[in-house]
Amino acid sequence: MQSRSFKDLQIWQRSRKLAVRIYSITKSFPKEEMFGMTSQLRRAGVSIPSNIAEGHRRGTDKEFIQFLNIARGSLAEVETQIIIANDVKLIEDSITEEMVVEINEIGKMINVLISSLTK
Fold this sequence. Notes:
Elements: H1 10-26, H2 34-58, H3 61-87, H4 93-118
Helix pairs in contact: 1-2, 1-4, 2-3, 3-4
């Protein structure tokens, strides 16, 4: 593993932007969703860059891979919640489509990084 900062990792930067976008989108959710969908989606979104950062700082490829797998799980959770939020009309179709594209791209980046660390 390289010793550069996790903040230099494109995957961390993209997942951080995704988390910020989730906060922006969920601001328009109804108040009754504050402890439901809003909170769940925000926690899962923040978990992605957080696990990438924590895994990178652990210092070994094995631990980094473990945290990347957790980030990948949180990414799937975010995708599911975005789709459900769209199903119940909390998010417009166009925003859902944009988010799913970004989620899939971040997922591919995680997979590539895991593959490179296992070699």
